[in-house]
Amino acid sequence: MAQSQGVQPAYRRLADDIIREIEAGRRAPGSRLPTVRQLALESGLAQGTVKHVYDVLEAEGFVVKEQGRGTFVRRPEAPPTGDKARAMQAIDALLDDMAALGFSWQETRIFLDLKLRQREEGRPAVRIAAVDCNPEALAMMREQIETLPHAEVEIYGLEAVLGDSRPFEPRADIAVTTTTHGDQLDARMAQPVIRLVMDVDTETAVALAALPESASVAIVCKSERFAGIVLESFRRYCPHVRQVEVAHFGRPDQVARVAERCDVLVLAPHYPLFADTEELTALRAHGGSRILYRYRVELGSMVYLESQVAACWRSREE
């Protein structure tokens, strides 16, 4: 199957090449990698790009940087013992869970810092009820909102909310939804609902626009609504791409088929939440490229929501 090389950034291709060399034993533990300048000359990439490659490899745990000495392939660590060992194992398990949910190292640091501060201050977080019509958008909405200080998010599917004859009364300080569903939710709630403007983020839009006309693409998702959002972005950013299929989690036969025959897979960042073991195996075996479609709360909406969270938090001091 032909790969769509235009989709994957140059830094990611170089990082993956180095990872393969490490995993194959061609770069031994403790061995020193070329300097940024040397690798830039060898690869034909800018020094800034190579520096980013080393930053990515360090964040993903493949290398360590030593001040004044260089960058080295990480050595296997000896297993610790005692209480410290149990503590480190608990932290490792937490980090593995966060990675499986699709969170980056930076996002994990933000969440940990938030929880530590909440415990130190002894005040409960500002509870936010987020409602939308598809689980992919809800997962991304929660990820972004929980980067706000003192915010904690519970997510609710719109269909379940509207399908219940009783008023929707979540145990929350603030309720949010997208501009699409604001009026529907207003009719079911006593408290005001904040409407968030959401759109595809810039990095995703650039990746879509870079798809070659010949690429065969599959959108792999949980909900029809999310597939529609992605297809709308295709019409905006890459109308030249004609071979686009949709496969749904919960249908392993569909997922396996598109993973085998399509050049490019488009997935929500938290897709492991929606896939079973068979589907994840098929996606790992995919030989082409993938685009993680990030659907983001726009800056103006985030600034307003942050002000409302801060006001709610300050009111608890009074």
Structure in words:
This protein has helices at 10-23, 36-43, 47-59, 82-100, 105-121, 135-145, 158-163, 182-186, 202-209, 224-237, 252-261, 277-284, 299-315; strands at residues 63-66, 70-73, 126-132, 151-157, 174-178, 193-196, 198-200, 216-221, 243-248, 264-267, 289-292, 295-297. Helix 8 links the parallel strand 5 and strand 6 (193-196). The chain is α/β, with parallel strands linked by helices and 318 residues long. Helix 1 crosses helix 3, helix 2 packs across helix 3 and helix 11 (252-261) runs parallel beside helix 12. The radius of gyration is 22 Å and the shape is globular. The chain contains 13 helices and 12 strands. The protein has a 4-stranded parallel beta sheet with strand order 4-3-5-6. Strands 9-8-10-11 form a 4-stranded parallel beta sheet, sandwiched between helices. The protein has a two-stranded antiparallel ribbon with strand order 1-2. The model is unreliable at 1-6 (pLDDT under 50). It folds into 4 domains: 10-73, Arc Repressor Mutant, subunit A (Orthogonal Bundle); 82-122; 124-197 and 298-318, Rossmann fold (3-Layer(aba) Sandwich); 202-293, 3-Layer(aba) Sandwich (Rossmann fold), CATH 3.40.50. It is 47% helix and 18% strand.
